[in-house]
Amino acid sequence: MEIDVLIAGGGSAGLAAAVSAARCGARTLLVERHGVLGGMGTAALVHSFCGLYELAGEGGPQWANPGFASELATRLIARGGAVAPVRMGQVLVLPHQPAAFARLADEMVAAAENLEVLLHTEIIAAREDLGEVEVLTRGIRRRVAPRAVVDASGDGAIAALAGAAFEQAPPDQLQRPAFIFGLHGVRTADWDDDDRLKIASRIARAVAGGFLPAGALGAAVRVSGRGGEVYVTIDLAGPPDYDPTRAADLTALEVEGRALAWRLAEFFRATITDFSGSVISAFPAQAGVRESRRVLGRYRLETVDLEDGAQFSDAVARATWPMELRESNRGPRLRFPTEGRAADIPLRSLRARDHDSLFVAGRCLSCSHEAQASVRVMGTCLATGEAAGIAAALQAAGRPAGAVNVRSERERIRKP
Fold this sequence. Notes:
Layout: E1 2-8, H1 12-23, E2 28-31, E3 48-49, H2 68-78, E4 86-88, E5 91-95, H3 98-111, E6 115-118, E7 122-126, E8 133-137, E9 140-151, H4 157-161, E10 166-167, E11 178-184, H5 193-208, E12 220-223, E13 229-235, H6 247-271, E14 279-282, E15 294-295, H7 303-308, E16 315-319, E17 323-325, E18 333-335, E19 343-346, E20 358-360, H8 369-375, H9 378-396, H10 403-413
Parallel strand pairs: 1-2, 1-9, 2-6, 9-20
Antiparallel strand pairs: 3-5, 4-5, 7-8, 8-9, 10-15, 11-13, 11-14, 12-13, 16-19, 17-18
Helix pairs in contact: 1-9, 9-10
């Protein structure tokens, strides 16, 4: 199967990359291992888009990355799949319904000419020059010959298979994964922020008293926006030598997450009147891994770049979310830019160091561990995915895949 652009992974970054590459005229194949597109925002039940907007100032919400990101968010809001952006301190987030995101993703890829999507499919082998890639669907192998590749797998999976250089933080520094589940039948009509804080305090006391396991300590509850439903987010500790690319560790995460969710649901029903009739309504298809491999690119976006709001001549996206460090399961540590100015993301950070035809997007792009804690959020992933998809389409067409051309092509294909 000869194609122009192969996209590995159908999360926020991969979705944006695939649709954008196809809109540029490239024959594009998107490969996704789950049965749904949207990645963290659907399969992992992450129910808020972060990084879509500029840092919250005095005025109203302003798009950080006009283009595919603003198009998707606007369409979600228009159909009732997302509410208006919500201010949380210095940032704005867009709460959404994962099911609505999944349906919109289906519609966007279906409307894109030149784009084929293979769900339930994984990349299992890649030639070093990426001239041939092998995919597997339920025991059936298929060979693909792409002219350019975008690794939006989140784990740098195709980069690792092709022997591209990558790095990974040691186990004690990796951002901890999240396990998010839904509870239905909760009486939330009169809730405010104080109620959420009271729930967190109850959890802390129950852990201190031995009524809940320590892993439940950082659990947070948010109203979903649909009657009687809340989402509960647990930051998982993982094994002591946690490696998010190791099957045994991923298995342990999933089992740990479901066990903690069950214990929390029982605790809420037994001790909080508003939860007395609640039931678990949804488990995620996967735990929300926040960090694993980071592919080495032609520029490594550094921590100081995020702190100083660095500007680059080859900028193709902007990182407006603070560095949200979750190196333990006790909640985040937020680090904002020193001067309140968002940093650029250069095209060089989206291009593999040693492979001309390999681009990366999403949480596995070339950056430091701390910088990754900013650029990994879904709003920013949409922007880096769009840029990587356009660059790959230009590369496949034999045109210079430079930042000027990427920005120009983005304006040409931009939808209102």
